[in-house]
Write a structure and sequence with these properties.
With 552 residues, this protein is α/β, with parallel strands linked by helices.
Length: 552
């Protein structure tokens, strides 16, 4: 039996030899084979080498889902560079923070996407960028950034056209033998990617993974999901998150399955894609499934090809079909995706809001008292801790002692307990909001609200939502004699926050009208109750009528 690949270069070369012209990635009319992805990423890798990128160089990738993202990621990986997966929802402030924190040296970006003008955003984030002249760039605001290659239209002197990078890759200086030599120096233990996820503080966390942790875990997950060479997998999850590139793209690469993208989610178009492409596995968040089910086209589309995935029961409920693997993953960015895998269970006690999962091979769990850190016996609820070979190498710019305990466990912030070899998840211990599959740190939004001169207090929390799991809700107290509409306040946030972080409920309160504890701190459960009343349309309170704005 062939030994599984533990780094990207042999994975690419082996799949190109094995599957050749078979479709690897589909986006609309664009169809890239395993062979063409290997060839395109090799050319781009050569261009990156000629442009001064090497082992350990941090390469920012800002592309929407599709072949270009995959090509850029594979190109950086096969020469030992580290991809910094950039969120396409980023506003200028968020993009600037991440570029600086990750020490990005080379940025590969599209000019715009979904109304986001990234080049204008970079000029807003770094006002002196136009003074830098031609490349290389030298800016005190982002000192490691040397060059920006732009796909699309750009007349900025501080960018370099993508065609230039591609031309560099066709130079005879970097031939096949030289690239092969470079690839041979890439080891499983080398760093592969930095993925950013919201932390428990205002600053996001940069999660660093190696080649081996990503590839071994994604391969095991592909096996557990029952992926086959014949599968055509619909992937709506963003590739800049673990669920997109590791659980999705790389899992498919392992077995030779085809990854199908269809751009930003739109129910009518997605249903057409599912039918036309004969999708066999569909993986999506619950609110996507709900939108597909409720669309008028749902009943007339032939979705009989769908055999497995999180949306299988909704899209193809016929019992005579191959049931595939009926399972639910539990996971997070720090463990390279799901760290447990188990059946959905509806017969648990009401206080157990989650389901159970059997820990995956190579991973260990323990439950500890969140206050003392002491291990708890089986059946006792506490904080879930995990360690093993798919666990991250660490948090970028955080010391190991800050990240792992003395036994090498990562404390997840999730609540749960162990029983009979299974792990039961009961909810987040902290304040993190999980909305539509994305994590949102309340403190980040609170900090921005408090920067508004009219705002005295600001509190952000999550409220239950049948479509998104939770929505972001904000309670804002204005300073005495200050006036500010929710529309204006929302507009200020919109320019600085990704769309999924924007409060769906934004409510204004007078001073002293919110619930507080005896020590003067905000009463979190009481705050949720107040905001839930507002969401239900109750516009009265002890402080009188206040203005609110809710959007769905």
């Amino acid at each position: 039996m062939t030994k599984p690949e533990a780094s990207i270069p042999p994975l690419l070369r082996n799949r190109a030899r094995q599957y050749g012209s078979k479709e690897a990635i589909v986006l609309g009319d664009r169809r890239e084979s395993f062979e063409s992805i290997d060839e395109a990423s090799a050319r781009l890798a050569g261009g990156l080498l000629r442009a001064g990128v090497g082992k350990g160089t941090r390469v920012g990738v800002l592309f929407p889902n599709g072949p270009d993202w995959a090509t850029a990621f594979f190109a950086a990986a096969r020469i030992g560079a580290i991809t910094v997966a950039l969120n396409t929802f980023y506003k200028p402030r968020e993009l600037a923070w991440t570029l600086r924190h990750a020490d990005v040296h080379t940025l590969l970006t599209v000019d715009h996407y979904l109304g986001n003008d990234y080049l204008a955003g970079l000029e807003e984030a770094f006002p002196t960028i136009g003074d830098s002249g031609n490349n290389p760039l030298f800016m005190t605001d982002v000192p490691h950034l040397r060059q920006i290659f732009a796909w699309g239209d750009s007349d900025r002197s501080w960018t370099r056209p993508a065609a230039e990078l591609e031309a560099l890759g066709e130079s005879s200086t970097v031939d096949d033998d030289f690239l092969a030599s470079i690839e041979s120096a890439v080891t499983p233990s080398d760093s592969l990617v930095i993925v950013y996820t919201s932390g428990s503080t205002a600053d996001p966390k940069g999660v660093l993974h190696s080649h081996s942790s990503v590839l071994r875990h994604s391969r095991e997950l592909a096996t557990l999901r029952g992926l086959r060479e014949s599968d055509r997998v619909w992937l709506p999850m963003p590739l800049f998150w673990i669920g997109g590139f590791a659980f999705g793209l790389l899992g498919n690469m392992h077995v030779g399955a085809t990854s199908v993208f269809d751009g930003p989610f739109e129910a009518s178009r997605t249903l057409e894609v599912l039918e036309r492409e004969r999708i066999t596995i569909s993986t999506a968040w619950p609110h996507f499934v709900k939108a597909l089910q409720e669309h008028p086209d749902f009943s007339r589309r032939d979705l009989s090809s769908v055999r497995s995935g999180e949306t299988r029961n909704a899209l193809q409920p016929h019992p005579e079909r191959d049931p595939g693997l009926v399972a639910q993953p539990f996971g997070m960015t720090e463990t390279c995706g799901p760290h447990t895998f188990g059946d959905i269970t509806k017969d648990l006690p009401e206080n157990l809001r989650g389901s159970f999962g059997i820990p995956l091979h190579g991973l260990e769990h323990k439950i500890v008292d969140p206050e003392t850190g002491e291990s708890l016996p089986e059946g006792h609820e506490g904080e879930i801790c995990v360690r093993g070979w798919s666990l991250m190498q660490g948090l970028y710019k955080k010391e190991r002692e800050e990240t792992f305990d003395q036994d090498g466990y990562y404390h997840t912030g999730d609540g749960g307990y162990l029983r009979n070899g299974s792990l039961y998840f009961t909810g987040r211990l902290g304040d993190m909001i999980k909305t539509g599959g994305a994590n949102v740190a309340p403190s980040e939004i609170e900090a921005l609200l408090l920067k508004c001169p009219e705002v005295l207090e600001a509190y952000v929390t999550g409220l239950p939502d049948s479509d998104l799991g939770e929505i972001v809700a904000a309670a804002v107290v204005l300073k005495p004699d200050q006036k500010l509409s929710t529309e204006e306040l929302r507009g200020r946030l919109k320019s600085q926050l990704s769309a999924f972080k924007l409060p769906k409920l934004l409510a204004l309160f007078s001073e002293g009208s919110l619930p507080y504890t005896a020590s003067g701190k905000i009463d979190k459960p009481g705050l949720k109750n107040v905001l839930e009343e507002r969401m239900r349309g109750d516009r009265t309170s002890t402080a009188g009528r206040v203005e609110e704005h809710a959007s769905r």
